[in-house]
């Protein structure tokens, strides 16, 4: 069986992460050997995709069973082009999350490498491992005379050292599977306009999972399981006013609006104008009229004018019943990540920004309101340490139980009590890494074989 290398990180980042996972509290609780083992499993599992694809069903538009049936028909049609032995399609229900469908990912599979090689960026490579085809902007290198119809092996550049337009690459790379070119080399690299569309259609991927390009866009939304859990944990009710502070591209925003039955108001903020357009498009496609999106820096979202009458940001203090702060973070929980070229300074740069956003969130939240803080990273500084800081800085906040709570508890190392750690939800795929290739039924392991993610829920007294 082909096994990916561990995630490639800069040495300083690796040592920093190791110090996090082997901190004094952890070592005192479990010992050096167990802590070291967990850290090594983390480095291994981050470069592999989860063993399933998670789809959030738009159950405000159709029943889960109806969406499941339609999705099955769409994907079965897509898979007719595959060899008979490759066609294996299951769509399973998550046992605890009522709007989630699970599709098994088959792999890593034994695939023979070809002599013609295409090299793609690490970001493109991660998408291929989740079932995507290779789009033209992601290609860095291709054979000199590559023509549409050629069979090629696809590799991911691990260190970001492949020069765009190269005809070959001898640096560190990892095999992703085989595909058929849909564009000539000249149409990818030798055009005035940036190349668009599928450039290599994957036919023998190392990890077999359906491509969702254009599949039921209003009914089936690709979203990592912990991101779906966040919407349920927030617990918004019809008629409430909700703020999503860092909302783009709007997956969680639209989920919250759907869970409210499109009754109330969901305000979405993001600094990027193009991403705001994407939120509007998603809300329109999902037929959600209660979403209002604004291009605005959420650190400045609190107005000093208590009688402000304008509709958009900034807002007067205590304007919202619930606030979601899905904070910008180092992203070290995303899977698969085969390589990160970020420096330690970049990895550690998010804590101050997260605290600025958190202060604004607390001010904008009504008394008796709920604040949910989440990240897709695995560091203590951005997760449990932020919770400890928040509880110390804002006596009005108390941690609350989460429903559903399908992840692990918080990690030791930030000085939080056992009771506080149990109220936190940390999705830690390394804890079950030994068991992901067993005969355990997929729905039973779907809650553990996830991306790395963190959720804290607060009540403002």
From TrEMBL:
UniProt keywords (A-Z) are: Methyltransferase, RNA-binding, S-adenosyl-L-methionine, Transferase
Q: Which SUPFAM superfamilies match?
A: PUA domain-like, S-adenosyl-L-methionine-dependent methyltransferases
> Per its UniProt record, what Gene3D superfamilies does this chain match?
PUA domain, Vaccinia Virus protein VP39
**Annotated catalytic residues:** 376 (nucleophile)
Q: Which GO annotations describe the biological process of this protein? A: RNA methylation
Positions bound to S-adenosyl-L-methionine? 246-252, 270, 305, 326
Which Pfam families does the protein's record reference? Answer: Methyltr_RsmB-F
Listed GO MF terms: RNA binding; RNA methyltransferase activity
- Source species, domain of life: Eukaryota
Q: Which residues form the SAM-dependent MTase RsmB/NOP-type domain?
A: 145-461
Q: Which family does it belong to?
A: Belongs to the class I-like SAM-binding methyltransferase superfamily. RsmB/NOP family.
Instruction: Kindly provide the name given to this protein in its UniProt entry.
Output: SAM-dependent MTase RsmB/NOP-type domain-containing protein
**Source organism:** Monopterus albus
Top-level taxonomy: Eukaryota, Metazoa, Chordata, Craniata, Vertebrata
């Amino acid at each position: 069986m082909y096994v990916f290398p561990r995630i490639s990180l800069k040495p300083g980042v690796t040592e920093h992460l190791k110090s996090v996972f082997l901190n004094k509290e952890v070592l005192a609780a479990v010992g050096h050997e167990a802590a070291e083992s967990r850290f090594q499993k983390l480095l291994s599992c981050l470069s592999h995709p989860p063993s399933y694809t998670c789809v959030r069903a738009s159950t405000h538009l159709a029943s889960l069973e109806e969406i499941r049936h339609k999705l099955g028909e769409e994907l079965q049609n897509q898979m007719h082009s595959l060899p008979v032995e490759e066609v294996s399609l299951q769509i399973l229900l998550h046992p605890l999350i009522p709007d989630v469908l699970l599709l098994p990912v088959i792999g890593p599979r034994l695939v023979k490498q070809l002599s013609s090689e295409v090299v793609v960026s690490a970001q493109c490579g991660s998408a291929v491992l989740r079932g995507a085809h290779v789009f033209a902007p992601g290609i860095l290198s291709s054979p000199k005379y590559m023509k549409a119809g050629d069979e090629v092996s696809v590799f991911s550049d691990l260190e970001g050292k492949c020069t765009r337009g190269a005809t070959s690459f001898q640096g560190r790379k990892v095999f992703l599977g085989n595909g058929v070119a849909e564009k000539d080399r000249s149409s990818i690299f030798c055009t005035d306009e940036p190349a668009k569309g599928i450039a290599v259609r994957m036919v023998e991927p190392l990890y077999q999972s359906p491509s969702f390009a254009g599949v039921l866009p209003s009914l089936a939304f690709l979203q990592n399981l912990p991101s779906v859990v966040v919407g349920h944990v927030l617990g918004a009710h019809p008629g409430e006013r909700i703020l999503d502070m860092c909302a783009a591209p709007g997956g969680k925003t639209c989920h919250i609006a759907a869970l409210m039955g499109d009754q109330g108001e969901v305000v979405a903020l993001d600094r990027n104008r193009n991403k705001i357009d994407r939120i509007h498009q998603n809300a329109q496609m999902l037929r959600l009229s209660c979403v209002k999106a604004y291009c605005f820096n959420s650190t400045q979202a609190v107005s000093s004018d208590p009688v402000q009458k304008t509709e958009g940001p900034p807002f007067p203090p205590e304007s919202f019943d619930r606030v979601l702060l899905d904070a910008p973070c180092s992203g070290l929980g995303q899977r698969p990540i085969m390589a990160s070229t970020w420096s330690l300074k970049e990895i550690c740069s998010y804590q101050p920004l997260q605290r600025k956003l958190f202060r604004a969130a607390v001010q904008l939240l009504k008394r008796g309101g709920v604040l949910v803080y989440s990240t897709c990273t695995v560091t203590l500084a951005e997760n449990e340490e932020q919770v400890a800081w928040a509880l110390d800085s804002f006596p009005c906040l108390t941690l609350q139980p989460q429903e559903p709570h399908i992840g692990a508890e918080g990690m030791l190392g930030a000085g939080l009590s056992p009771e506080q750690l149990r109220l936190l939800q940390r999705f830690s795929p390394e804890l079950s890494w030994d068991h992901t290739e067993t005969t355990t039924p997929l729905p039973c392991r779907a809650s553990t074989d996830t991306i790395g993610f963190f959720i804290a829920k607060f009540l403002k007294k």
